[in-house]
Design a protein that fits this description.
Blueprint lengths: L2 E5 L5 H16 L3 E3 L11 H11 L2 E5 L2 H7 L11 H14 L7 E5 L10 H4 L3 E3 H13 L22 H22 L5 H14 L10 E2 L3 E9 L3 E8 L4 E8 L1 H4 L2 H15 L9 E8 L2 E7 L6 H6 L5
Parallel strand pairs: 1-2, 1-3, 3-4, 4-5
Antiparallel strand pairs: 6-7, 7-8, 8-9, 9-11, 10-11
Length: 317
């Protein structure tokens, strides 16, 4: 009998009832399915119990909702209990240790709109919408011949956290202009006019002397949201349109870029980071880039929120 564990967030009584119904259906279909509602008073602490359940399971179903996503990415502190925060940390650690090889952890959701809450680190694998794809899910869990995996693929571009509606419209116009530029170049036309339009749109987005969410650096890195800031630079979550994944982009403050020694120190730091190779050190992907006077380098984007919050929440060993 295949063992299935269901990881979910306690969003509401209605959501808990749907998860319970899913677990009951799986048990009726011959699986050994466990959720915390099946074990209201385990004989060991909750974190240890959840860890043992995940380790022992043949499959772990991750029920994706807005709250689960927020806790899994460190954007929301949990209320009572660790819940999805602790479980998602265990799942992420398992994926890391397996070299991102995965057939065990499966994202599922109940409604169409909840697909966007599949965590980034599960998007590349299999996911199922339960109201339409329960039978394919059951077949996959059974390991039956001809089992079909549901939607999986490259991470979709995330939506930037725009400063305001005006910036959103400018950013969307910039994306559309870049698409027209590609079409014109492909067809052998003259892209001069659309390239001037791109320059004008970029200038408007950067009004005030700073880049913003929705801006596109080097025609490749779409800024999504500000992750942190310091005296020399800001760090942005960004989407790499070339490789279709998330990255972290560190942008030197414009006033610091005018100081030659600070500029040299900024890129010297990036170069030294790029020489270091260790699982505990963030990789540098691009050491030195410039876009219209904005100097930056690109690093890997590490999931799980910021380090300080993870340590305080005991989400790291």
């Amino acid at each position: 009998m295949r063992k299935v564990f269901v990881s979910y967030s306690q969003d509401s009584a209605e959501h808990r009832a749907r998860v319970r119904a899913l677990a009951d259906q799986l048990n009726r279909d011959g699986f050994d399915c466990t959720i915390d509602q099946h074990a209201p008073h385990p004989s060991e602490p909750w974190p240890l119990w959840m860890s043992r359940q995940i380790e022992a399971a043949d499959f772990v179903l991750v029920v994706c909702t807005e709250r689960y996503f927020a806790r899994a990415t460190g954007e929301e502190k949990p209320g009572i209990g660790l819940g999805a925060t602790f479980e998602s940390s265990l799942i992420l650690q398992s994926l890391y240790e397996s070299g991102n090889r995965n057939e065990k952890f499966i994202a599922v959701f109940f409604r169409d709109e909840e697909e966007r809450f599949v965590p980034i680190w599960l998007r590349r694998y299999t996911w199922y919408r339960l109201d339409e794809q329960y039978d394919p899910l059951r077949t996959y869990l059974e390991g039956s011949a001809g089992a079909v995996k549901a939607g999986a693929g490259a991470d979709p571009p995330p939506i930037p956290r725009y400063l305001n509606d005006e910036v959103r419209k400018l950013s969307e116009a910039l994306d559309e202009a870049h698409l027209r530029e590609e079409t014109i170049v492909t067809e052998g036309g003259d892209p001069a006019a659309v390239r001037q339009e791109i320059l004008d749109l970029r200038r408007k987005i950067r009004e005030g002397g700073n880049v913003k969410a929705g801006d596109l650096l080097a025609g490749r890195f779409k800024l999504i949201e500000l992750l942190g800031h310091g005296g020399f630079a800001n760090v942005w979550k960004a989407y790499d349109k070339s490789k279709h994944n998330l990255v972290a982009v560190k942008v030197l403050h414009p006033q610091s870029a005018r100081d030659g020694s600070r500029l040299d120190r900024f890129f010297r730091g990036a170069r030294k980071m790029a020489e270091l190779h260790h699982q505990g050190i963030v990789r540098v992907i691009e050491e030195r880039l410039d876009d219209g006077g904005f100097h930056f380098f690109v690093m890997e984007y590490v999931l799980g929120g910021d380090l300080r919050a993870a340590v305080l929440a005991n989400r790291l060993p």
